[in-house]
Design goal:
heterodimer, A: alpha+beta, outer membrane lipoprotein receptor (LolB), chain A, 4 helices, 50% strand, globular, disordered N terminus, B: mainly beta, Porin, 18-stranded antiparallel β-barrel, 3 helices
Chain lengths: 262, 375
Amino acid sequence: MKSLFKLNIRILGLFGIWCLGFGAYAITGEEIIKRVDANLTFATARTESKLVIHIGNEIREKELINYERGRDTGYAEFLSPPRDKGIKYLKIQDNMWMYLPSVEKIIKIEGHMLRQSMMGSDFSYEDALESTKLLEKYAAQIVTEETISVSFQKGEEQVTKQRPCYVIDLIAKVKDITYYKRRIWVDKEVYIPLMEELFALSGKKLKVMTMGDIKKIKNRYYPMYYTMKNLLRSDSLTEMFVAKAEFDIEVPPDTFTQRNLK
Amino acid sequence: MNFRSYLQLKRVFPYIFVFCILFLQNQAAFASLDFGGYYKNNLIGIIKKGGDSLIADENKIRWRIDLRPSPKILLHLEPEYATLIKSLVVPLFEAPELDKLNWDRLYLKLSFPQTDLTLGKQRIAWGTGHVWNPTDVFNPFALSFAVAEEERKGIEAIRLQIPYGPAGGFEGVVLSGNEWAKSKKGLKAKVNIGLFDLSASYVDLGDGSNQIGYDSAGEIKGVGVRSETALVSTPAIPSYLKSVMGLGYTLDNGWGIDFEYYFNGLGKRSLSNYNWAGLFAGDIVQLGMDYAYLGFNKIIDEITTIQFSFLMNADDQTWIFFPSYERNISQNVDVGLIAMLVGGQEGGEYNPTTTQDPTGFIASKRILIKVRYSF
């Protein structure tokens, strides 16, 4: 009888642990990524941003305006500094073009060039071009939960917040992809990625991106602060401050055409 | 003789401008004025074949001015002023006229619902090749040691562009300044299919010759692929082909590799048949038939780039080697250090004897230190 009781206790214990486990991951990795996509996918958007590129002790600043339609169409124009003013980018699905005002020429950014640094930042053209939903290329799995410290610059102030996150591993369904694995920390409350590590097929960590200063704009949450660190470069970091973001606005149809580049 | 043969486009041009100014007067006051430009200094050291050396220092200021009285009207101006101090006479193939204000670009662009019309001195850049552009006949640019592509002189033209879809369209260009029959005129159609941009063109070269061409740029399995071909038909000599095939790839470590092969149907494969007189007279720009370009570049950090460019005449195995180092030393200041070395068989295109090139400049060794301030 005593042994039967012990056995029941063990079964109950195991059942309890199983229930706890089930409760912790009541949501799947795929569902979390779908919610992330819902936050970061919009009919149209217009943002005004500033890139602050840190290279050792040196800093370069660039301002740009960005228009997006869905996840696969975008237009960006650099407003400053003078050496970059008027450089424009257009992306339509997997195609990207750059317009150089100095030579009045549109150049196609071909596949291999997408890996190169965009305007001297830690972002590559590929990072900027990425348009497909993550689940189309990756399989998602929850790894654990973690509370992470999120720091971001808000004006002159450095803000740090503790945020509970789901940690998701995204493994590419194909091998011919720049980032074979991505580990994403997704805020449990607002479903915005707060940190992302990007890995090559070899397992080498290539880049680390963070997001902060999450704001609610209309019915969605949107990060107003990003950082990207390319680990293949020494001592460099790019910050992106979103000064203004508007969603689901009317954008002239000519915006996403090569005509608008010239 | 018909009326069109008497029509000199240059005479028509001022009337078009007057019409446009009248059109502008009906618009609101200038809604926007953009002003920018750069100052640059090029310090060049040259050791000529034969041993003479010289130093030259070029100073240039160039402005870029955009006046937009309305979103549909743009008046674009790019005046520049350059001076050159030199220890010996330097031949200037590509440089602007010195010690005077040059209006390199000066055009009016009118945007109608389905059409853009550009009138005036402008840059028309056709083709997808990085080093050679056989279809770029209006103001072609050849890879140069000291002259940036943006400094290539504009041409006076009337250009009509009709977009078709987000990345396609039609284009018509007529150069002004000549009788209609002698004016260079071109038509081009462009389309994007999948990951490729494709275009086809036809140009009446105005001297009884014409050119049909195509170009493409895209990627196959992550490798950048581009090609450009022109078939030139002239009454004086048999038709000939100019063609470029290029590949590009960026390695995981950030090194970019760029390769281009150029076939010049007008050139010769044998040194003894080279047309040196034609080259110096400016009738031709290359002597050989087969050329190759190999370039390596790497962005060391976000503000420093190194590049190694190797250009070869494959017929006579003469070559030019351009190593360069460029750094953005502050937000608006860039500096660069570029060298040019030549070698290979003596008597070849890039390493001529002093008899073939009495100036000694083609096979000279050069170094350039450049500083540029953008404003």
